[in-house]
Amino acid sequence: MAKPISEQADDLLWSIRGVNFGYNGTPVLRDVNLELRCGCCYGILGPNGSGKTTLLDLMGGLQSPQSGTVEFKNRPLDAWPKKQLARQLALVPQDFMVRFGYSVREVVEMGLHPHLHRFAAPSEQDQALVDEALEITGIAALADRPVTRLSGGEKQRVAVARALAQRPAALLLDEATSNLDIHHSLEILHLIRNRFEQQGMQVVAVMHDLNLASFFCDRLIFLKQGQVVCQGRTEETLTPETIEAVYGVEAEVTVSAFTNSRQVSFRLPVAP
Amino acid sequence: MHGRAAALLLPLTAVLILAVALSATLGFLQVSIPDVFIILWAKLSGQGQPTGIDPVAATVVADVRMPRILGAVLVGGLLGVSGAVFQAILLNPLADSYTLGISTGAAFGASLVIVLQIFGLALPSGVTIPVFAFIGGVGTLAVVLYLAAGDRRLSSTSLILAGVIVAAILSAAIGFLKFLADEQVGLIIFWLMGSLAGASWPNILLLAPTALFGTLVGVFYSRDLNIMATGDRAATSLGINTVRLRTVLLTVSTLMTALAVSVSGIIGFVGLIVPHMLRHIVGPDNRLLIPLSFFTGGLLLLIADTLTRAVLPVEVPIGVLTALLGGPFFCILFKRRQRDGKTDF
Fold it and tell me: Is B6 in the A-facing interface, judged by CB distances under 8 Å?
């Protein structure tokens, strides 16, 4: 994939300072300090339980830090009216579950919610947005099917389509492609990357697969036990040293001419 | 979608008015439909006895049949709407005031007042029973939610299990109250089997605004409720204050249930089946489902009550009738869904 577009548009999006967070007294994030700027696709990486999803929740205003501040566009997230924030940030969760048999189109239309008055019907323009989202995620043919009858991959594309219909300034992906096969993962990541490059929709993605992260993200943030171990440009941070420090596995990082990105192979450390 | 709901409003209201009028003609005394409207008009405009109509028939229709008929419509509507809201907010197609134990809690509150009154406690009965029914309902809901809260998704199983446990305890408590009531036990049995025979005009004046208010609140939040079906996190990221939504809607639905129970006693299956059936016909969109649940619930309970009041040779308690009709219907629905390989409802 092509590498970042805009070098000039590097205004501050998120500013996270001294953030601590825990569930029932168990610390999940400890003293996290980060700045995320426009013009880069960010990836949040780390082992299970390292606090990736919690960090994403804090950035999306879904949780409030117990100490420290999270600011989005120079305004603390708590100070954003919820609906206004929903026009800025959209979330694609890992397992998009829908109870009751809403049609695919109905679910994607929910993305319009923050833009519509309570009793307003979607305008023609809104409908066109929904159509477009259905089209580019490749689910237009499923529009009238109940979501409950779709496969996991199709459901995930519905979640992406809904997030796109939400027209956010930034998209938060929470392992959005973890449960998909490689073909569907690549498809979804490509279309999101296209939105980023062509329309400037910012992206922060929690990811599991280092190789996918390597070509999808411009900058990586590595978490371990709730702390930021290392962050920076993908080519500088995706190194055998970082991977060993974060995941405890030996790694070899090569630049693949085939994918035009860094690719990682792993093995467990050999016992001495 | 609101357009679709609005377009249905007029014909549905017409059907309901017709059903009310038709039901009012049925019974021991036969009255014609035009006469029903004349009697009602006379009653509503405060003219006393309408001319040209048997005064006994006029009194029967205006003061005996009409409150009961309107009571049936309003109680059915309240149960239908509260069922639809409970199912949507708890993401659970099996939730309703009955399976959640709220009806039993409200009946416990009402029974307690009755027993206290038997023991000579002077309480203004017109207000006390609804108030105690409401406290009983809210208290039960709080306990059930607390018991099920260990499971963060509030799944069907844990909620219904909690509801069944609490309802069982409350049933035992009601049993004890029945024992205390001794010879006047019939008053309590009324609550347990449900009956609209005691519905009066003051009851209607209490139920009508509640039904209107509750349905409007449900419709007001219907788009938010739709989005809740995609999970808490997703709903929050679409700008919905999920905690406030839950609190408001659970309180309003409990209020609706408690007031319905305070007039009619426990009437099961209406709140469960009405939204269920409608979801099959019109889909899960709450913007349509909630208003339709009012009309369908009202109509069904009116039909059931008219059956027991005027058609069946013996008056079967309405709660017994709805359970006897609704139960098997639900079984068929459940079995058919399984056969179609649908487990999602």
Answer: no
Q: How far apart are CA B50 and CA B60, in angstroms?
A: 13
Tokens of B340: 């179609």
Burial class (CB in 10 A: 0-12, 13-18, 19+), B282: middle
For chain A, positions 97-156, list CB contacts with chain B under 8 A.
Answer: 97-103, 106-107, 110-111, 113-114, 118-119, 121, 146, 148-149
Q: Which two tokens stand for residue B256?
A: 């609706």
Please list the residues that pair with A261 across neighbouring strands: A256
pLDDT in tens, B82-100: 999 999 988 888 788 888 8
Contact B286, B300 (CB under 8 A): no
Instruction: Tally the domains of chain B.
Output: 1
Residue B344 inside a domain? The answer is no
Q: Are A221 and A34 in contact (CB under 8 A)?
A: yes
Model confidence at B323: pLDDT above 90: no
* CA gap A250, A271 in Å, rounded: 12
How confident is the model over B30-45, as a mean pLDDT? 84
Across all residues in chain B, what is the average pLDDT? 86
Q: What is the CATH number of the domain that holds A31?
A: 3.40.50.300
> Contacts of residue B234 in chain A, CB cutoff 8 Å?
91, 93, 96, 159
Q: What is the DSSP string of B234-289?
A: HHHHTT--HHHHHHHHHHHHHHHHHHHHHHH----SHHHHHHHHHHHHH-S-HHHH
Does residue A226 sit within a domain?
yes
Contact assignment for B230 to A60 by CB distance below 8 Å: no
Q: Give the pLDDT confidence of A115-156 residue by residue, as tens digits.
A: 998 888 888 999 999 999 999 999 999 999 999 889 888 999
Length of chain B in terms of residues written: 345
Confidence label for A4 from pLDDT (cuts 50, 70 and 90): very low
Q: What is the pLDDT of residues B39-86, one digit of tens each?
A: 888 887 877 677 777 888 888 888 889 999 999 999 999 999 999 999
* Sign of the CA dihedral with B162 first, then B165, B171, and B177 last: negative
Q: Are residues A143 and A10 in the same domain?
A: no
Task: Indicate if A23 and A151 belong to the same structural domain.
Answer: no
Let me know if residue B41 belongs to a domain: yes
Contacts of A46 (CB under 8 A, 6+ apart): A52, A222, A223, A224, A229, A246
Inter-chain touch B231–A103, beta carbons under 8 Å: no
**Residues B319, B321, B324, B329, CA torsion sign:** negative
Could you tell me which residues come within 8 angstroms of residue A118 by beta carbon, excluding any fewer than 6 positions away?
Answer: B220, B223
- The distance of A106 to chain B (nearest Cα, Å) reads 9
Average pLDDT over residues B318-328: 87
Domain that residue A13 falls in: 1-88+168-237
Residue B124 located in a structural domain? yes
Tokens of residue A188, six digits = 């979804």
Task: Count Cβ–Cβ pairs < 8 Å, chain A vs chain B.
Answer: 86
Mutual angle of helices B286-306 and B2-25, in 10-degree steps: 10
Count the alpha carbons within 13 Å of A114 in the hemisphere toward its beta carbon: 26
Question: Which of B2, B223, B227, B230 would you mutate first to test chain A, the one with the most A CBs within 10 A?
Answer: B230
In which domain, by residue range, is B308 found?
2-339
